[in-house]
Amino acid sequence: MATLLSHLQQRPPLLRQAIKIRRRRVRDLQDPLPQTAPEIQPPSHHFSPEQRALLYEDALYTVLHRLGQPEPNHVTEASELLRYLQEAFHVEPEEHQQALQRVRELEKPIFCLKATVKQAKGILGKDVSGFSDPYCLLGIEQGVSVPGGSPGSRHRQKAVVRHTIPEEQTHRTQVITQTLNPVWDETFILEFEDITNASFHLDMWDLDTVESVRQKLGELTDLHGLRRIFKEARKDKGQDDFLGNVVLRLQDLHCREDQWYPLEPRTETYPDRGQCHLQFQLIHKRRATSASRSQPSYTVHLHLLQQLVSHEVTQHQAGSTSWDGSLSPQAATVLFLHATQKDLSDFHQSMAQWLAYSRLYQSLEFPSSCLLHPITSIEYQWIQGRLKAEQQEELAASFSSLLAYGLSLIRRFRSVFPLSVSDSPARLQSLLRVLVQMCKMKAFGELCPNTAPLPQLVTEALQTGTTEWFHLKQQHHQPMMQGILEAGKALLGLVQDVIGDLHQCQHTWDKIFHNTLKIHLFSMAFRELQWLVAKRVQDHTTAVGDAVSPEMGESLFQLYISLKELYQLRPSSSERDGVLALDNFHRWFQPAIPSWLQKTYNVALARVQRAVQMDELVPLGELTKHSTSAVDLSTCFAQISHTARQLDWPDPEEAFMITVKFVEDTCRLALVYCSLIKARARELSSGQKDQGQAANMLCVVVNDMEQLRLVIGKLPTQLAWEALEQRVGAVLEQGQLQNTLHAQLQSALAGLGHEIRTGVRTLAEQLEVGIAKHIQKLVGVRESVLPEDAILPLMKFLEVELCYMNTNLVQENFSSLLTLLWTHTLTVLVEAAASQRSSSLASNRLKIALQNLEICFHAEGCGLPPEALHTATFQALQRDLELQAASSRELIRKYFCSRIQQQADTTSEELGAVTVKACYRASEQKLRVELLSASSLLPLDSNGSSDPFVQLTLEPRHEFPELAARETQKHKKDLHPLFDETFEFLVPAEPCRKAGACLLLTVLDYDTLGADDLEGEAFLPLCEVPGLSGSEEPGEVPQTRLPLTYPAPNGDPILQLLEGRKGDREAQVFVRLRRHRAKQASQHALRPAP
């Protein structure tokens, strides 16, 4: 064995030849490509014509001298097998007939039955101890017909082997003592001539040895043992006991049999005698073929297997299908017969299958998974020393050859297993599994002890293959014309190929290599390729220099983007060693930044100019109210943002300056667009008399500007200002980003807002004239026209114009227009209301107009919101029109309502107070008032006191025309008089319940010589008097304390309105009285305190 191993170690280093390749770094673009490893030449699977003829003869001989019953799924007809062999060996019909005739004339082989007696179970116990000492006699009886059928249906065979078969043809097993389940595992070769008349006989006997009675009694265990002693006493000493037999016809056997057979009795006594496990194999001895005489059986079978498998594979390829490793029934039958007749062991068959498949795999295309079965079989049956030296060398050579071939495929896996073929990943994974299983075999470890670990070999192959692949791609992209621009394009294509390859490694191949061999292919490939790429890119940027032309700038930008994508693929820091050659690669491109920024602006400006020039200022559709140029501009700005995101400059300070430049250019383009689109509108509308068309264009222009404003407003998000602020926080002063970028943005938005407002203002001015005319007509309409009919022209005008604007303006611009129109409309209404203060009819029309205009401008939520409509001007106008439209009596009622509210809001009693008790008696329709007292009155006389009395009247007078005023007694010099007087007023309940109905308590200072002075007024709301709210009579009436108040010194707006109604006598009387009271109050307010 040592000699064999030393001989194997002296063999040519096939593995080293395949994978030990000297790798070196390429220093520049002009370095010669490294020498690639020589391709491993696979062993040939073809035979010479002489070898094929000898092999064909042996295959025909196997079919012609077939023995046994066919196996399931095997071919039965010999003619079919012969036709298959003719096809598999590519033999012409005439040549096939000649070879067949020669084989038929050859001497027949010696037919043999290889019988293995494995074991028995459940046999009879013949000895006193209850056990037996079994052995078997077996042989073949020739020329005697044995009935067929199942064992249970056969006749009992009373004849035994020792009586029917000559002693020299009888074979005997060993004796297994004292057991009922003997195990022999002995094999015998039994020759026979004619299978049709031959039968196999096996007898099982219990060896009987001479023992003394004392010994037998010592082994006695029960009554059955005692009976055996008496039985043995009657038979001859040394006579063996019959345990059973098995008789089989050879022609009923298959080529291989492995069964349990029942042991048959000679008589009906003890019919159940147990079972015997037998194995049979019908084999040949002294085959007459040249191959069998000159070559070992194993070698012949290997060659036959190789020939037939090669034929199977090529047949599938001819049918455009892939062979899955399954042999056809014809091939399986021939190989089974050949291996059986040659008496090849399972191990040698597995080894032959491995050798054949491993050789064919290197030259034919079929799944590598077909190699797993023979690998497993060899590993399971491997016993050191089982093979001869030349067989061990052959097996070792097959291991080395397949390993070298597999490594060569792994080295070239990108081209051998392209992802364009769907099953490539599965094929590579299958190959790796085969190599892993092969290198784990005990046979591999013993026969190839000096082989490096498989992960190391595969890693070296992958590294070498990656470098070779890169240089092949570099050569593929080599430009036809030598120039710096062409070199840049070639380098860009090379980098993109590297990125594509790394994506494949990351998403597909890395998982396969890691799961199988724990190799991180992606990390290894990235380290190799990034170094090669970095060297070439750095050399290229150095050659370009600082003077970057626009064309070169574009080329460098594409290269930068590709390098950035490549660098982003880098493995995590835990998966890579140290720094990368691509770290800080952006510094190589710093000279090109100005060119990139200028190119971006120039391209965008050209697109804006072209978009505006081609724009006809027509909305794109019903839902899209801006024109084509706005869409083009949005796309243009999106492209700028995309360029900025692509650039994503790593240096924070430089990234900030680049972003400032992008924002500046974008804002500049926005203002340029506004100028261009307005000029385009003037160009299209010049010479047109249709004002509607001009209005349409103006609507489109302001819509385009609004769309632009929305796009500009998204710059902070599109340019990732928040992330930029976090990056530059350490290098910029606090607030610098806000002061720079946001200031630029707000300036641009302010400019756009001004342009939009100017355009909307122009549209509004066209409508304001019409609104003013209709409101003026509304005021001057005849009194006979109903207010609802009078406002119809105004509402129809607004409906038409606002519907048109809503259709042609986007919502933001339409809302701005509505705001301007609403403000203008309120201004016109205020002026109209001021001119019609004395006309309640005209004011009523304006009031109804305001209500309808509010509904129109709100438009059920589609127009202005309520908070935008209800401005201070609107609320004041609404109050004024409510008053102006009211009748004189309604105004008087409102006056008393306001005085009651004024009194309720008063929190002090600086003028004094009165205390009353009032109730309404519904049964008598009387209002009963008890005036109890007054307190804290002002001293109005020169003596520092007053002579107070109270005047009681029910107001408004038009509600209580028949009730005269009442007065209390006058109290001399008393600022806290106690009146304690009761007054009753006969009045219906209904007028008392109306808003503004009240009991006016006027406190006066009696003056003998002149007019009485006013101390103050108090108002008791009648609706709050007990007894008015229900039919029940009031119970205990509470006291009510009312503070005294003065009329408003600056004049009341209600009184002003009443004063303006000169033709209304009632209004004038009420105004004179109220003016008189106000005058009295003002005199007292100016009087100094005594």
TrEMBL record:
Residues covered by the MHD2 domain: 788-895
UniProt-listed SUPFAM superfamilies: C2 domain (Calcium/lipid-binding domain, CaLB)
Domain C2 intervals: 92-239, 910-1035
GO molecular function: metal ion binding
Keyword match Cytoplasm: yes
Pfam families from the UniProt entry: C2, MUN
Topological category with respect to the lipid bilayer: Peripheral membrane protein
Similarity annotation: Belongs to the unc-13 family.
Function: Plays a role in cytotoxic granule exocytosis in lymphocytes. Required for both granule maturation and granule docking and priming at the immunologic synapse. Regulates assembly of recycling and late endosomal structures, leading to the formation of an endosomal exocytic compartment that fuses with perforin-containing granules at the immunologic synapse and licences them for exocytosis. Regulates Ca(2+)-dependent secretory lysosome exocytosis in mast cells.
Protein name in UniProt: Protein unc-13 homolog D
Organism: Cercocebus atys
Lineage, uppermost ranks: Eukaryota, Metazoa, Chordata, Craniata, Vertebrata
